[in-house]
Specification:
Blueprint (H helix, E strand, L loop, with lengths): L7 H15 L4 E4 L8 H10 L2 E4 L9 H15 L7 H18 L10 H8 L30 H8 L1
Parallel strand pairs: 1-2
InterPro entries: Integrase_cat-core (IPR001584), RNaseH-like_sf (IPR012337), RNaseH_sf (IPR036397)
Protein name: Integrase, catalytic domain protein
GO molecular function: nucleic acid binding
Length: about 160
């Protein structure tokens, strides 16, 4: 959402729209920003009976997937673009979001774009812990592990 300010009421409307599209999650995890600690959000969580977990202040690693996404957004769009208007910012954000979610593969989803992963997972699919790819926790490594353990000592002898 790109706007001059974002209220808790606006945030709860956006969350309702996400739930309509994807189904209700078991819980939501967020930082302690004012948009997420407002009376409107607290009331919304009670009405929807949705658990809301706040990460510890100053501990962004507790919400690593979101922090990673925010970092990509900042590095690829926000730090690189001078927006001439709110409409320009909204259009640029929509293009970036489309690329990030529908075209770009992500390692946390088995190298699938998130939109495809979500479609294959289906509405309401619950993920406990880290996101899982379609059959494993992460993509398979490029090279197989050494059958006899480390061969670093052999490499040093050969290269010396």
């Amino acid at each position: 959402m790109a706007d001059t300010s974002l209220s808790g009421t606006r945030g709860s409307r956006e969350l309702d729209a996400i739930i309509d599209r994807r189904g209700k999650p078991l819980s939501v995890v967020s930082d302690n920003g004012t948009g997420f600690t407002s009376t409107a959000i607290l009331r919304w969580t009670q009405q929807t009976k949705l658990e809301w977990h706040y990460i510890a202040p100053g501990k962004p690693t507790q919400n690593a997937f979101i922090e990673s996404s925010n970092g990509w957004l900042r590095d690829e769009l926000l730090n690189e673009t001078i927006f001439s208007s709110l409409d320009h910012a909204r259009q640029a954000l929509a293009r970036w979001k489309d690329d990030y979610n529908t075209l770009r593969p992500h390692s946390g989803t088995g190298d699938l774009p998130p939109a495809l992963y979500a479609k294959l997972s289906g509405p309401g699919t619950q993920r406990d812990g880290a996101l899982r790819s379609m059959g494993a926790f992460a993509p398979r490594p490029v090279a197989p592990p050494s059958p006899m353990g480390s061969n670093a000592h052999e490499t040093l002898l050969i290269s010396g």
